[in-house]
Write a structure and sequence with these properties.
With 231 residues, the protein is of the alpha/beta class. The chain is 22% helix and 28% strand.
C-alpha cells in the first residue's frame, strides 16, 4: 500500500500550505480516498489521480468533505464513472440539496453507522471515533498490512486505541500541542502517551501551530501535503 497525503491541515488552518483533510490510498490499480476536504481534490488533480474508485468520509464537518463537490463536477466533465462514497448518515441529504440548487452532479452514496466495503485489493472497515459530532475512524488493509486513519477524535478513545494495537501505521489527528479535547480533538502530548511513536503519522495540523506541534512530536512523523509513505 502507498499513502499520499492530499491535505494535512485542520479545519481552521489558513492558506494553501496545508489543504484540508484527505489521504489517497493506493494498491495496484486500486485507489481510494479517506476524507476529501477543501483543496484535497486539487491535489488529486495534480497527481493525475481523478479516477479514484471510492471515498470514505469520517464525519460531516465541512473540512472533511467539502472538496467532494468540486471533485464530482470534474468527474462529470471528464466522463468518469460514478464515484462510490461511504459515509456516516447525513451526506446523502447534503448532496441532494446541492443537486436541487441546480448542480447536476451525483455520487453513489452508501450510508451506515459503521461504513465498510471492499474496493479492489483493499478492505475498509470503521470503528466509532470520539469527536464532538458522530464520527468514525477507518482501517484499511491489503491483507498484509493495516493502516488506521483516525479522522477527528479525542483521545483516549478506546475503540481507536484497540485498533491501533494491531495497526502497522496510525495516521492520527494532532490539532494542538495539548488541551483541545473540549473541541473533540487530540493534543500531541496526550497522543504520544497512548500510541507508540514509531507507528504514528500526525495530520490535521493548524498552520499557525505547525512549529510547536513538530517540536512536541519528537519520535513521531508529521505529515505534510504531498508526502508519500509505503506501508
Amino acid at each position: 500500500m502507498e499513502l499520499t497525503f492530499l491535505g494535512t491541515g485542520a479545519g481552521s488552518t489558513l492558506g494553501s500550505k496545508r489543504f484540508k483533510s484527505g489521504v489517497l490510498v493506493s494498491s495496484g490499480t486500486t485507489k481510494l480516498v479517506l476524507d476529501m476536504g477543501s483543496g484535497a481534490n486539487y491535489r488529486l488533480e495534480d497527481l493525475n489521480a481523478l479516477d479514484v474508485q471510492a471515498l470514505f468520509v469520517t464525519h460531516l464537518h465541512v473540512d472533511h468533505f467539502s472538496g467532494l463537490l468540486d471533485h464530482l463536477v470534474v468527474r462529470k466533465l471528464k466522463g468518469l464513472p460514478t464515484l462510490k462514497v461511504y459515509s456516516p448518515p447525513g451526506l446523502r441529504s447534503v448532496l441532494e440539496a446541492v443537486k436541487l440548487a441546480g448542480n447536476n452532479v451525483g455520487a453513489e452514496v452508501e450510508e451506515a453507522e459503521l461504513p465498510k466495503a471492499k474496493v479492489g485489493d483493499l478492505e475498509v472497515y470503521s470503528v466509532k471515533a470520539c469527536h464532538s459530532i458522530y464520527a468514525v475512524a477507518y482501517v484499511v488493509t491489503d491483507g498484509r498490512r493495516r493502516v488506521l486513519y483516525s479522522g477527528d477524535t479525542t483521545e483516549p478513545c478506546e475503540t481507536i486505541l484497540e485498533e491501533a494495537r494491531d495497526a502497522d501505521l496510525v495516521v492520527h489527528e494532532a490539532s494542538c500541542v495539548t488541551g483541545c479535547d473540549s473541541w473533540g480533538h487530540t493534543g500531541v502530548r496526550e497522543l504520544l502517551d497512548l500510541i507508540p511513536r514509531e507507528k504514528l503519522v500526525l495530520t490535521h495540523i493548524p498552520s499557525w501551530l505547525e512549529a510547536e506541534i513538530i517540536e512536541a512530536s519528537v519520535g513521531a512523523r508529521v505529515a505534510h501535503d504531498g508526502m508519500r509513505l509505503n506501508v
